[in-house]
Hints:
Blueprint: E1 14-18, H1 22-33, E2 37-41, E3 55-57, H2 64-73, E4 76-79, H3 86-93, H4 102-109, H5 111-120, E5 128-131, H6 137-142, E6 148-152, E7 162-165, H7 168-177, E8 183-187, E9 193-201, E10 207-209, E11 213-218, E12 221-227, H8 233-249, E13 254-263, E14 266-273, H9 283-286, H10 291-299, E15 313-319, H11 320-324, H12 330-334, E16 339-343, E17 354-361, H13 365-373
Parallel strand pairs: 1-2, 1-4, 2-3
Antiparallel strand pairs: 5-8, 6-7, 6-8, 9-10, 9-11, 9-13, 11-12, 12-15, 13-14, 15-17, 16-17
The protein binds adenosine-5'-triphosphate and magnesium ion.
Adenosine-5'-triphosphate binds near residues 159, 189, 270 and 271.
Amino acid sequence: MVADYRKPLAPGATLGVLGGGQLGRMFSQAASKMGYKVCVLDPAADSPAAEVSALHIKADFNDQAALTELATVCDAVTTEFENVPANSLRLLQKSIPVSPPPEAVEIAQNRNIEKAFFKQHQLPVNACAAITEVADIAPAITGMSGKAVIKTARFGYDGKGQQVCNSVAEVEAAFKEFGAVECVLEDFVPFDCEVSVVLARDIYGNIETFPVVENQHKYGILDLCIVPARVSEKVITDAQALAAKLATAMNYVGVLAVEMFVCGESLSLNEIAPRPHNSGHYTMDACNYSQFDQQVRALAGLPVGEVVQHQPAIMINLLGDVLLAEGFDWSKLQSVRNAHVHVYGKSEARAGRKMAHVNLLGSDTESLLAQASTFS
Ligand SMILES: Nc1ncnc2c1ncn2[C@@H]1O[C@H](COP(=O)(O)OP(=O)(O)OP(=O)(O)O)[C@@H](O)[C@H]1O
Ligand SMILES: [Mg+2]
């Protein structure tokens, strides 16, 4: 049985979130603004989300007793990361509303299942093949351009668990280095740029799409987001339509992020995230509703808000590397008058760890880019 969603939750209700990282923290901040209490389920004692939330259940994501407690305490539950066991979401769904749907989370957990879903719904995706043993590699690469990317099917993030290869031998070596776990081999896409679309879909089927974001990566990690993306009107419209089609096909409720490659005027799908996304952080200051506001609204059974972007924006990720570098000084950032600094409250800065982000707002993208270049 699936619990009834149809009555919007009034202020005072408690919302649960599986995962206690920065996405959970920003969800919690948005929820508290709207009068909801938040209960975080996360095994870590020093969770960024728990620090700003009313309640914290310190337990693993498959701890049955903890899940039962969460279902008792909360009126609805969401997740801030895709690797929570789908069965835990199913268990919660027996007694309270859960969004996004466990099936959507399950699709996003495995790159092969995700790509099969895209193909099944005739959504554009570049040549790719599942690799479960060495013998799968040579036939898979034959139909590709010669350059390919091997990725572990599960648990990859920030470019971890993937490698660009130029020969069968290189793919084989990478596959073995990954422990011969299930992988996907993707043709290397010579894209002009990468974009993402974050959208929110509510229980009534309304879809509200945020503006298209142009994403730039450094060392495999998202570095900079430019919004609006510097692409044609056609690419903007197509990207938003593609993301909406995907959300509808998944019968999605909540915030969904869709990453895409742009080649000329064509789009192809890279991957999805069944949650708010790093590339949607600009919405916190540049839009009337943030992606976290929408996550709260969808979870609480409210219609998603109509989105307007007030100003062009650039989002810059601040990794541990920057904070640890000699001469780093918070006050330099804090005193920039068009910069909104969001700090995640993580106890320790480490190389490659996302510690904070800055949203720069202005009237024109080129001057914002020039300003952003002085930050690194
Ligand atoms: N097939 C491909 N062709 C060209 N570049 C690729 C391909 N796949 C991935 N990349 C590059 O590597 C980046 C990370 O890949 P992907 O999004 O699949 O992995 P991830 O580890 O889930 O990353 P993230 O957590 O940043 O979303 C992409 O944004 C893109 O820049
Ligand atoms: Mg990605």
